[in-house]
Amino acid sequence: DKIELSKVQEKTAISRRNDDVMSIASREFIQILYGPESPYGWTTEYATIDAITREDLVAFHSKYFHPNETALGLWGDFDSTEVKSLVEKHFGPWKRKHVDFPPLPEVSTDWKASVNFIAKEDINQTNLRIGHLGGLRNDPDYFALQLMSEILGGGFSSRLVKRIRTDLGLAYAASASWGAGWDMPGSFFIFCNTKSESTAQAAEEILKEVRRITEESVSEDELRVAKEGRLNSFAFNFDTTGKIVRRLMTFDYYGYPRDFLETYKANIEQVTTDDILKAAQKHIQPDKLIILAVGRAQDFDKPLSTLGEVKTIDIAIPAPKTQ
User: Fold this and answer.
1) Which residues does 91 contact at the CB level (< 8 Å), separation at least 6?
2) Which residue, 24, 75, 222, 290, is the most exposed by fewest CB within 10 angstroms?
C-alpha cells in the first residue's frame, strides 16, 4: 500500500510538470544538454512508474544497501561515547557484502549548437536558457570560472544585468552560472525571462556578452567586486554544524580532500584577470551554445530562425496505459 501511495504521488507530479514554465525550461534544457541516451536527462513517465514492482525495490535494496557502502553522519547535543555505543549496537550486526556498481554513464562532450523552441500559449514572457556543458569541481580552472560567471551574470552589477536590464530594459533579471559536478560535468547556463516581444533581441544580446567574455579581459574592478561577492557569502558555509558534517560526508563520498572548501577562499583570492580570460577561452564555446526558448512564437520580435535552425520540442505527457 505504501508503494501504491508513492506511485500516486509520482504520477501526480508527472501530471503537473508542465504547469510551471521555469520548470519546463530547466527540465528540457537538461535533456538537450546531456542527450536522449543519457540518464542524467531522463524524465519519469507514467510507464516508468507503472513498471516498478515491490520485487524490484527489494532486489535493489538487497544489491546495494550494505554497511561497507554506507556513510553515517551525526550531529547534535549528545554524549559521543554513548551515541557511538548505540550505533555499534544497532548497526554492528549488519553484514558486509561486495557490491558491483555499474560504471558511471559517460557524458558526450561532442555536442552541437542548436536553437530549440517549446510553445507555451498561456504566457506573455519568454523563458530563455542558453548554455552548454560545464565541468568538474576538481578542474584547476574551477575558481576562475566561478568568478567569470559572477562577472557575467552573478548579480545586479554583472554584465548581463547591466546590459539586459539597465541599458535595454528587456528583463528584470538575467543570470549566469558555471555548473561543476562532483563526478560528472555540470552545466554552464544563462537564464533570462523577457517579454515575448523582445525574445530575439534578448537572446542576441546574451550571445554577444558570452562571446565578449572570451575575447577581452575583465576589468580589475569587475574582478574585485566578484571576489567580494563570493567571499562575503563564504561564512555561510560554516554557520551550522549540519552543513559542516554533510559537506565532509560529500567530500568523502566523491573522493575530494576534506579541506576542499577551506582552500576555496585562498584559491578565489589568487585568481587574476588573465586567469579568467584563459579559463573562459578554454571552457566557454560561443559557437556551440544551446538556445532554448519557451513562449509564444507569434509574439516574438523576430523569428527564432534568425538565430539558427529551430527544433520544436513536444512536451506533451504520454498518456498512462489503460489497465
Assistant:
1) 67, 72
2) 75
